[in-house]
Amino acid sequence: MNVPPSMSGRPPALVVAFRLNCPRPTADIRVLGDDTRRITLMYGTPTVQVSQLVPTYVDGVVAGLLAVEQVQAPEGTYLMIEVPLTIAPGTMPYDARTVASVQASAMASAIEAAQPRLIAEKSLEEVVYPPGQYGSGNEGPMVFTGVPPVSPEALAPLIVQTVARLDALDDDASRKFALSSRWFWKGFETLNQVDRFLSWYIALEIFPAEGTSDVPGRVRDFIQGTFYPEVPPAQVKERLDLGRLTGLRNNIVHDGIRTLGSGSVSDTRGLMLKLDGVLRAVLRFQAGQPYDGSLDKWVL
Fold this sequence. Notes:
Layout: E1 13-20, E2 29-33, E3 38-44, E4 47-58, E5 61-72, E6 76-84, H1 93-114, E7 119-128, H2 152-167, H3 171-188, H4 193-206, H5 215-227, H6 233-239, H7 242-255, H8 265-286, H9 296-299
Antiparallel strand pairs: 1-6, 1-7, 2-3, 3-6, 4-5
Helix pairs in contact: 3-4, 4-8, 5-6, 5-7
């Protein structure tokens, strides 16, 4: 079954397929259908055509290609939720996807709460455009960063040295680094800015802020004492915006902020760059690597 065949003349929509632990329906059941959401129970192999912006690197030049592909979920009984994308004034297109994803998750969570163990898994979540329309459905901004190329011949001994340092860690340091790394990669792998921010913040809570609720204070003390002993602690905290990062985390968790950047894209991007820099410096230390001065541009 191709999903959704009824999109002609409709705006782009986020289509989410949840595979269910229930028998096959005798026919597709349209449960709800209006301008704000469409919910269907169906059996089959949900299939959507999606378009994605794919970065391409050729001879030092970065380009973006719009690729179209078919995405298919395994055969089964599904709860299909379709939420139209609405781009509000002053927001970015990927904000609309985040809002739609939150709405779909809320409906699925309410259904799962009402009928426990009904949902086996989320099998598909994609932005689908009407026939003849194409666009990127990314969850967040794509940032292209130019870095000096490293040849495989130079990379090979670096990898050997890096792994040797990792093997030399004691059990406790190795455990903390593994946990921090898990959350670093969770954030790295998503373009959703809220998910990335929270994942990277959790990594800092594991180290160096393990065992305290004063995350900005512990991170400040670690960075100042380890990398910048001659710099006043207050300067480190201020220059790295550690207090603002924690404030943003609290706003997300306690105030229900669903998107980052609306109306303040450059400011949010600056905070994310600092969080990225702080976490990478901490990870280098955890992995037994020398400090590379990567925070100098902010701290000094």
